[in-house]
C-alpha cells in the first residue's frame, strides 16, 4: 500500500500529454462535443476530468473506498447522501453532536418527505442503540465532533449496525482521511466538507462522498437532479490543496497536541477538549481509530474573562467562522458561529456549548 503522502501527491493526476506538465491540466469546458463521444460529458454528470481527478485521489486517501463523488459544498454532499439513501417511511438515528447544519437540514426537510429521525441522548453507541426502531434504516455519526471533540467507537457502532442491517454514514471532516479511515471499519459512506482541511487554504468550497460503487452511482444520479456539482476550476484548486494534505495534517496534528497540552496547564483555562489528551473521555478509543488527533482544540476560559474581549486581544490568531485553514483561527461557538446560530437556546445549553467555550482550528 502506498503512503498517504504519496497518494496525496500522485493519485488521480491527469497526464499532460500535450506539454509534459507535472500538474493536472485544467479543463474548464462545461460544453463538450456531442457526436462520436463515448459519454455525455457535463459538469452535473460528474464526468469532467478535473472532477474525476479529485474523486480518484479522495477515494485512494479514504482507504477502502470503491468510488467517490465531488460536490459544491459539504452540505451538497450531505443532502444528496440523505435523500438518495433514504425514502418516505424510513427512520434514521443521528448521533448527538453531529454538525448543526446537518441537523438543521433534517429538521427543515424530513417531515415533508415522510422520513423520521431521532437524535441520541449522548455521543455513544449505547444511546444510539436506544433510538433504533423497526423503521430504522440508517445511522449517521461524526467523530470527532465539533466543537466538543467527542469520540464515538466506530468499530463498535459498525458491528451493531451490521447486525441489524443498517446503513452507516459518517462525517469525517474534522478527522480528515489522513487521521481516520472509517471505511476500513465497515462504515458504508464517508462524507467530507472540502471547504475545511481538504481545501485547507480558505479559498475553496466543496464536499466529497466516498463509498461503494453502488452508493456513489446512486448519489451521482441524485446529484444530476439536485445540481450540487463542483466546477472544474474549484476541482483544480482542491486537487492542488490535497497534494499537501498529508504534510499539512502531520504538522497540524503536532501543533494541536502542543497547544492542547499547554492550554491544559494554563491557570486561566478551566477545561480543554482534545482527543489527544489522556484526560479526554475517550482518549483510548481515539488512539485506536485515529492515526493523529487532528487540528481542532476547544477550551473554556475562566469565568472572569469575556469571550469577545478575549478574541479582540489576539495578535496573530484570527477570529473566524470557518476552520481547517493554514492559519490558526478560533471563535466562540456560543456567540455567533455560523453553525450554532441556528440552534435554539435550549439546544445550545444541552449541547454543552457555554459562553466560555473557545473553538480553535490549529494551523501549520
Ligand atoms: C463545515 C462542515 C460541514 C458543511 O460543509 P460546507 O462545505 O460548509 O457545506 C459539514 N460537516 C462539518 C463537520 C463541517 O465542519
Question: How would you describe this structure to a colleague?
Answer:
- The chain has about 375 residues and is an alpha/beta fold.
- The protein has two domains: about 5-245, Type I PLP-dependent aspartate aminotransferase-like (Major domain) (Aspartate Aminotransferase, domain 2); about 245-360, Aspartate Aminotransferase, domain 1, CATH 3.90.1150.10.
- It has 14 helices and twelve strands.
- The chain has helices spanning about 5-10, 50-60, 75-85, 100-115, 125-130, 155-165, 175-180, 195-200, 215-225, 230-240, 245-265, 285-290, 305-310, 345-350, and strands at about 65-70, 90-95, 115-120, 135-140, 165-170, 190-195, 205-210, 270-275, 295-300, 320, 330, 355-360.
- The strands form two sheets. The protein has a seven-stranded mixed β-sheet with strand order 1-7-6-5-4-2-3, with helices on both faces. Strands 8-9-12-11-10 form a five-stranded mixed β-sheet.
- The model has no long low-confidence stretch (mean pLDDT about 95).
- The structure holds pyridoxal-5'-phosphate.
- The site of pyridoxal-5'-phosphate (PLP) has 15 residues, from helix 3 and helix 8.
